[in-house]
Amino acid sequence: MSGDATPTELWLVRHGETEWSRSGQHTSVTDLGLTPDGESVATRLTHPLAECSFAQVLTSPRRRARRTAELAGFAHAEPDADLAEWAYGDYEGLTTPQIHESDPGWSIWTGSTPGGETAAQVGERLDRVVARARAVDGRTLVFAHGHSLRVLAARWLGLEVSEGRIFDLDTATVSVLGDDRGTPVVRRWNVAPR
């Protein structure tokens, strides 16, 4: 890249490990804190993130995302409810194998979540985040959750919500979305801090 212009980019950070992310339990509205390992790894996010300047820094309002932002050096991150995790409704706290006992073949990407959000509702929320990121000159940094960030990536790229399934995303990782000559692209994906 030439010149001094700061590119329009969307940097995604999934929160550090929680007890439920470790056990595979679907976690949306349950406001869990980070495990000691989750806190330790979140502090290592400081180095890769400190190398860039950000026009805006946003976080899910959930404690696990806000704490990750704080440990990574962004205690001032602005809470944005649109970054909350997909609301799992009746499936909150359950693992996928537990859900399959009563709903064989269920997938968040293609199934329904009784009492929770639809794919369209999640897509609408994250489309607002995409618009907000594209409205500023420079980089936007967001701290959020596994499924919501996968949907955010799909929407940035102009894909359907269900295509978020192709973006595997670990806890406490950094991913970068951008544009190449007007085409939305993935610059980096699922990079763990050293």
TrEMBL record:
One GO process term, biological-process aspect: regulation of phosphorelay signal transduction system
Record Pfam families: His_Phos_1 (PF00300)
Annotated binding of substrate, by residue: R64
Listed GO MF terms: protein histidine phosphatase activity
CDD domains, sorted: HP_PGM_like (cd07067)
Top-level division of the source organism's lineage: Bacteria
Protein name: Histidine phosphatase family protein
Annotated source species: Aeromicrobium endophyticum
